[in-house]
């Protein structure tokens, strides 16, 4: 459920007509709904209410300061994967004790910044990383709290580019080696082993892969406790998918996911952490774009939009499907027409949809890409020297620009021409 609905024939973001925002900021732009962000966070928080837990928003899905502030005020922690994300979380007011640091390639500088600024735990992904973190912590005279990310060798049954839990993926240590690696960690004076971490992939549309992974985590918890490790926290990652294509079967709900966590791990008396990104921010955002031209090609018609692959790369990168709807609600029963929906970038890959049935559209009309709040703005670039597009946050009947569109001058002035040229 989201808060982007037609009212009186016009798409609204909560109580604000989308054309009103378009008139204020110009297309294309992203719009996020405060109520949807809050609602999705609460669904997870409620789903784990049976035990001690923390929902850490995977901010790589959407790291705008205002979005982080909405979620932090709702009680969310943050899952960060870089020094930049750590700095963003702190800048949005998230205390260090609610920030989890994930990622396969944390540098010593990033480790130091997080240890100095406060951190809930590092999710360590390899032995060399463990050695580095131990050294950095010792040099600061502190102990770094860690969970070790185990790779359970489970097929997440999702797109190959976002599956992370198979043994051939770069993530975590093989679960078969966990005993050995935990023993090494326990012997390092700069590390404080607090738990186990697992994250098997993104956009999962079934619970079964989670079940397989969590059963392995439960078993490992017993093994490690028997070895004398104090396993008091289980970080279960993110990954629950969202319904991009409304005609498909809906993925499991957070409440079903929470019940599965309870069933597989609830008896272990551990604090549960989860790191959802997409399910919190995905359907909390839309990308609004204007039609520049309708081009009648050889055997097919093209809708040429003012948004492009640099603004939303998911279709080009993951063959992702996004619902694209007209901002003016089509009359009931209006005849639909197949269009190839493309952007202006000079690449064939700049195609959002092929032969998509749409009501008749004309130059100047607005369309909205649904489910664009996650892995949208954060993955955008200025390819073709197209300035990053604005982000807008709606709350009830108010809206605010939460990232403005740079002018050409601002975009160009980030480059410098050396004095010797
Ligand atoms: C990407 C990622 C997440 C979030 O995944 P979603 O599919 O957006 O929920 C959580 N944890 C880690 C370690 C990740 O890399």
Fold blueprint:
Elements: E1 4-7, E2 10-13, E3 16-17, H1 18-25, E4 29-33, H2 34-47, E5 53-58, H3 65-74, E6 77-80, H4 83-91, E7 99-101, H5 108-117, E8 121-124, H6 127-140, E9 144-151, E10 173-174, H7 178-186, E11 191-197, H8 208-226, E12 233-235, H9 254-265, E13 271-274, H10 278-281, E14 285-296, E15 301-305, H11 314-318, E16 324-326, E17 337-342, E18 351-358, E19 366-369, E20 391-395, E21 398-403, H12 408-412
Helix pairs in contact: 2-3, 2-9, 5-6, 8-9
Enzyme class: lyase
Subunit structure: Homodimer.
Catalytic activity: meso-2,6-diaminopimelate + H(+) = L-lysine + CO2
What does this structure look like?
- 28% of the residues lie in helices and 25% in strands.
- It has 421 residues and is of the alpha/beta class.
- It folds into 2 domains: 4-31 and 282-413, Lyase, Ornithine Decarboxylase, Chain A, domain 1; 34-280, Alpha-Beta Barrel (TIM Barrel), CATH 3.20.20.
- The strands form 3 sheets. Strands 4, 14, 15, 16, 17, 18, 19, 20 and 21 form a 9-stranded mixed β-sheet that branches. Strands 5-6-7-8-9-11-12-13 form an 8-stranded parallel beta barrel, surrounded by 5 helices.
- A hairpin with a 2-residue loop joins strand 2 (10-13) and strand 3.
- Helix 2 packs across helix 3.
- The longest helix has 19 residues, at 208-226.
- The chain is globular and about 70 Å long.
- The site of pyridoxal-5'-phosphate (PLP) has 17 residues, from helix 10.
- Homodimer.
């Amino acid at each position: 459920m989201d808060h982007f609905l037609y009212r009186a024939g016009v798409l609204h973001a909560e109580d604000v007509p989308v054309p009103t925002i378009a008139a204020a900021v110009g297309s294309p732009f992203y719009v996020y709904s405060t109520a949807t962000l809050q609602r999705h966070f609460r669904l997870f928080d409620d789903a784990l209410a049976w035990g001690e837990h923390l929902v850490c928003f995977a901010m790589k899905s959407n790291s705008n300061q205002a979005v982080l502030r909405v979620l932090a005020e709702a009680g969310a922690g943050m899952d960060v994967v870089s020094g930049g994300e750590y700095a963003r979380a702190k800048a949005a007011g998230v205390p260090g004790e609610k920030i989890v640091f994930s990622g396969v390639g944390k540098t010593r500088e990033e480790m130091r910044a997080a240890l100095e600024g406060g951190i809930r735990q590092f999710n360590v992904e390899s032995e060399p990383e463990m050695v580095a973190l131990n050294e950095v912590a010792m040099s600061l005279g502190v102990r770094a709290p860690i969970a070790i990310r185990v790779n359970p060798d489970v097929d997440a049954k999702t797109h190959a580019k976002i599956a992370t839990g198979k043994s051939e993926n770069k993530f975590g240590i093989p679960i078969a080696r966990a005993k050995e690696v935990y023993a090494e960690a326990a012997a390092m004076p700069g590390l404080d082993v607090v738990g186990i971490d697992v994250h098997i992939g993104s956009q999962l549309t079934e619970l079964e892969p989670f079940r397989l992974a969590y059963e392995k985590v439960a078993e490992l918890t017993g093994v490690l406790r028997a070895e004398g490790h104090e396993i008091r926290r289980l970080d279960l990652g993110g990954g629950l998918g969202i319904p991009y294509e409304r005609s498909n079967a809906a993925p499991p709900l957070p409440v079903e996911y929470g019940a599965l966590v309870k069933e597989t791990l609830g008896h272990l008396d551990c604090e549960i952490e989860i790191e959802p990104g997409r399910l919190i921010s995905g359907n909390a955002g839309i990308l609004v774009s204007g039609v520049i031209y309708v081009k009648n090609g050889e055997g097919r018609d093209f809708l040429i939009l003012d948004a492009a692959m640099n603004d939303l790369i998911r279709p080009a990168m993951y063959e992702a499907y996004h619902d694209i709807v007209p901002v003016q609600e089509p009359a009931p029963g209006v005849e639909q027409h197949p269009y190839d929906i493309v952007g202006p970038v000079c690449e064939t890959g700049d195609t959002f949809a092929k032969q998509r049935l749409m009501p008749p559209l004309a130059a100047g009309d607005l369309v909205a890409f649904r489910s664009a709040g996650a892995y949208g703005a954060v993955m955008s670039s200025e390819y073709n020297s197209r300035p990053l597009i604005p982000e807008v946050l709606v709350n009830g009947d108010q809206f605010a620009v939460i990232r403005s569109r740079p002018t050409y001058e601002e975009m160009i002035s980030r480059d410098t021409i050396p004095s010797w040229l």
